[in-house]
């Protein structure tokens, strides 16, 4: 599984021959990618804020996956054609990938129309095997937490039962977790690798990533904090 961070919360995840793009928003300072350069099979949206769906219309050949409320909005406002509506707790098979939607603690106004709600925000657990209660040491699993605060579900459900090997965690503070709570999340999830995301896009969420590294280390866990450059790929 290859994980490429394109800044903010935008990730390109390759599972064998299947390409997933999460929260396409290329108007951020960490990426030099033109969306036209990418050809994902699926576009996964965690929620409807403009900095997460802004470029969803750039991929007319992709299937867009999100909650029914968000995919309906993208059909109406962005002309998206092929969609999969799913909901919290569900797992869907997307070619070589198994995608489980989990809740995120956040708000969900649509685009910049905050009076229009898109329902519960989400995060995604992406694996190359179907999740079961039987632990599978051979599987490879990545958790994109979406925009969220710290939740005990990370410790009680996502970590022990969905068993992510790596997690992308919002760390920019103000709108989401900051470095301290993101580090606690990484510890609770018991991942091998933790990546900060959703930072430095605008002044109010600028951070020193050394703080994230120090906070992860301070948990005393075996989690390795990984700071990616924009458009950098990590092989999981």
TrEMBL record:
The entry's protein name is UPF0173 metal-dependent hydrolase EGD98_06130
Which residues are the signal sequence here?
none
What InterPro entries does this protein's entry cite?
Metallo-B-lactamas, RibonucZ/Hydroxyglut_hydro, UPF0173, UPF0173_UPF0282_UlaG_hydrolase
Please verify whether the record's keywords include Hydrolase.
Answer: yes
Q: Which HAMAP family match?
A: UPF0173
Q: Where is the Metallo-beta-lactamase domain?
A: 7-198
SMART domains the record matches: Lactamase_B
Tell me the keywords, alphabetical order.
Hydrolase
Q: Name one Pfam family in it.
A: Lactamase_B_3
- Keyword Hydrolase among record annotations: yes
Chain segments annotated as transmembrane: none
An example Gene Ontology molecular-function term: hydrolase activity
Q: Which family does it belong to?
A: Belongs to the UPF0173 family.
Q: By its UniProt entry, which PANTHER family does this protein fall under?
A: UPF0173 METAL-DEPENDENT HYDROLASE MJ1163, UPF0173 METAL-DEPENDENT HYDROLASE MJ1163-RELATED
